[in-house]
Amino acid sequence: MHSFTTERLLIRPLLAEDETFFCQQHTNEKVMRHTGGVLDKKEANKAFQRLLKANQRATDGGKKSLLTWAIVCLNSEIIIGTQSLSFLIRPYNANIMQQAELDGISQAEIGIMLSPSANGKLFPEEAMAALMEYAFIQLKLERINAFYDSKNLATKRFVNKLGFTISNNIQSNSDQTSYQYFERHKWHQNLFK
């Protein structure tokens, strides 16, 4: 795993020092309303430790299951969010992830969570675009999937702005979850325009 920067952000692997921020995010009802629900402090601590172990395993050359980065504002040097690439098959993404796996497509699910103070500043587009570039160039992924709560209009807006494709033929089984994807060949086309 590597760190990388954008005009306003440092995106670096999650560190032990990020635990307080992570736990505050995951125990905040407003932040978690579209992500499966709030965790209690003990569950949040366990989740954080699992992410650190997954990052370390990937860094050591082991299996990549879930890679997580902290998003840090360069001006303030304060962590404002986290984002991840997940290679895990979950109930909500199983049909799409398993079919792509059968087709031999290297892929991951992308996710982002920002603190409420970072909202409205176009940070999701900037951070996600940088992570997409990393995924396509460094990790050689062919597809990035975005699964999100259908009620989360902010996420729908910024994945559309980034150019994710919606396919009515490949939606998840649930009306509660929306699905869009972005393929590497489209990324390369956009680079050379």
What is the gist of this entry?
With 193 residues, the chain is an alpha+beta fold. Helix content is 38%, strand content 23%.
CATH superfamily: Gcn5-related N-acetyltransferase (GNAT)
Looking at the structure, the CATH topology is Aminopeptidase
Query: Radius of gyration in whole Å, from Cα?
Result: 16 Å
Q: Regions with pLDDT < 50 over 5+ consecutive residues?
A: none
DSSP E strands, number? 7
- Measured as a percent range, the helix fraction is 25-40%
The end-to-end span amounts to: 29 Å
Number of helical stretches of at least 4 residues: 7
CATH class identity? Alpha Beta
Describe the protein in words.
The chain is 38% helix and 23% strand. By secondary structure, it is of the alpha+beta class. The chain contains seven helices and seven strands. It has one domain: Aminopeptidase (3-Layer(aba) Sandwich), CATH 3.40.630.30. β5, α5 and β6 (143-149) form a beta-alpha-beta unit. Strands 1-2-3-4-5-6-7 form a seven-stranded mixed beta sheet, with helices on both faces. The two termini are 29 Å apart.
